[in-house]
Design a protein that fits this description.
Layout: E1 42-46, E2 49-52, H1 53-79, H2 83-110, H3 120-130, H4 134-162, H5 166-188, H6 194-202, H7 209-212
Antiparallel strand pairs: 1-2
């Protein structure tokens, strides 16, 4: 089913863009009484390799990302004022639907509980963009998305480099391609202020943990699936490198 947009809540203070994807754990599913702060602590041994806290948190982060970036992609397709903006929206929808499918496939194999709602902060990102129209909507949405993608990109690389779990490694490979694709199409809009984005990426505000954590699903609730949208013929693999000049012949 298609993910419904959440436009509720007060307007997010734009200068306070923060970390989009915070560390999250659902320890009860894995029989862990107390959540450790050691990311490399092994919390389960699976047939796909050991699962660490960082691995589990990463799967949940990717899932949570789709729960707000997918509806923001829908908004971009509906309200974007340029073809480039609408294209960026389509890439967000397709990329996160595919990542979501992977998360829903591997989570039961690894004993991970997935959220059905984004965190309060993430929901506010969508509400902030939804409150704008015209070119201001384009600029607001692009800046939010470019900052958050820039923040998660090094997280993906770290998980990929360190995980010993083959399913998490597969998800990290896919997420790396998707995030790079999204960064590329967002920059194609011509609306990215790199100086502003770099500052916000490296200077996130300190928010309470409850603002950063998606609520756990209700017991027995079905897992929400993001609609694949096969009508959107979008390639979200890593974009080809920029052309470089041919070497000069001697």
């Amino acid at each position: 089913m298609r993910m419904s947009r959440n436009t509720a809540g007060s307007v997010f203070v734009f200068g306070a863009l923060g970390l989009t994807l915070a560390a999250l754990a659902y320890p009860a599913m894995l029989g862990v009484e107390n959540t450790s702060t050691t990311a490399d602590r092994i919390i389960a041994n699976t047939r796909y390799g050991p699962l660490t806290e960082a691995d589990r948190d990463f799967v949940v982060k990717v899932r949570a990302a789709g729960l707000w970036e997918y509806p923001l992609g829908e908004l971009a397709m509906e309200r974007g004022t340029t073809p480039e903006m609408k294209e960026a929206g389509a890439h967000l929808i397709v990329g996160h639907a595919r990542l979501d499918e992977t998360c829903r496939r591997i989570a039961p194999e690894l004993g991970i509980t997935l959220p059905n709602q984004a965190s309060p902060q993430q929901q506010q990102f969508v509400a902030t963009a939804a409150a704008e129209n015209g070119r201001q909507f384009d600029s607001t949405a692009v800046t939010i998305m470019r900052v958050t993608h820039g923040q998660i990109f090094p997280v993906v690389a770290k998980v990929r480099a360190n995980t010993r779990n083959s399913l998490v490694r597969q998800l990290a490979d896919q997420a790396n391609d998707t995030v790079l694709d999204h960064i590329t199409v967002l920059e194609k809009t011509g609306l990215v202020n790199h100086e502003q984005v770099n500052f916000q990426q490296t200077s996130p505000p300190k928010l309470p943990q409850e603002q950063l954590t998606p609520p756990p699903p209700q017991p027995g609730a079905p897992v929400l699936a993001l609609e694949p949208r096969p009508n959107l013929n979008i390639n979200t693999a890593a974009p080809s490198p920029s052309p470089t000049p041919a070497p000069t012949s001697r």
